[in-house]
Amino acid sequence: MNRRLLEEKGVLLDVTAKDWQVAIRICGEILVKTGKVEVTYVDAMINNIQELGPYILIAPGVAMPHARPEDGVIQEGISIVVLKEEVAFAPGREFKVLIGLAALNSESHIYILQKIAEVISEADTLERLKNATENDEILQLFNDKEEH
Amino acid sequence: MKILAVCGMGFGSSMMLKMTIEKILKEKGITADVETADFTTASSIYADFIFTNEEFAKQLEGGKVKVVSVKNIADANEIRGALESVLNT
Hints:
Chain B: One of its GO terms (biological process) is phosphoenolpyruvate-dependent sugar phosphotransferase system. The structure holds 2 protein chains of 2 kinds. Chain A is an alpha/beta fold. Chain A contains 5 helices and 5 strands, in the order E-H-H-E-E-E-E-H-H-H. Chain A has helices at residues 20-33, 39-52, 110-121, 123-130, 135-142, and strands spanning 11-15, 57-59, 61-63, 77-88, 94-102. By secondary structure, chain B is an alpha/beta fold. Chain B is built from 4 helices and 4 strands; from the N terminus they run βαβαβαβα. The chains are: A alpha/beta, B alpha/beta.
């Protein structure tokens, strides 16, 4: 069973973005480049936030932008963007890390959510995620050890 | 008892929130239904409690259902504390 949900090219560190739209677009474009989603999915990610607000903040400083499977998901997976400086959706609603999610339906991505939950639920792994300087640190957080 | 975990589309962060809530319920030996819903349908679904993020909490408050606002949807300590406080009232 292939449970390696994050690939080397799925991580981008030290990213500068002038606003949240740019940051989300960078995060979405990684999903496009790694073959997870169609370009339309990236627009859907941004539209969802514009419509519903910055509800995608799942932990302090961490947001999980995504759209619906029918918005153009090809293959399940995630992308990670760690920003150089925090960017805000609105005052007091800042994020340092984006976890772009591509899910094929409402059930099959549960193992991905479990992995993300594992990382953000502990203060030390959450800090390692926010302050990562090497792609390997991120890959180690999200992929099971035996697959390295 | 029914708990509704709410997010924008009903399968991303609400699903993660549901997993955290179920973990704590199991730990405490409490039986309850935990379901996910998207924001637009949440107010038409019967529940005893709604767990959601700060944005949606503000908008869902004011109805008959007790709304709990969550900062870190995967933080067991935060969810445990929130569950304890609503179940005692």
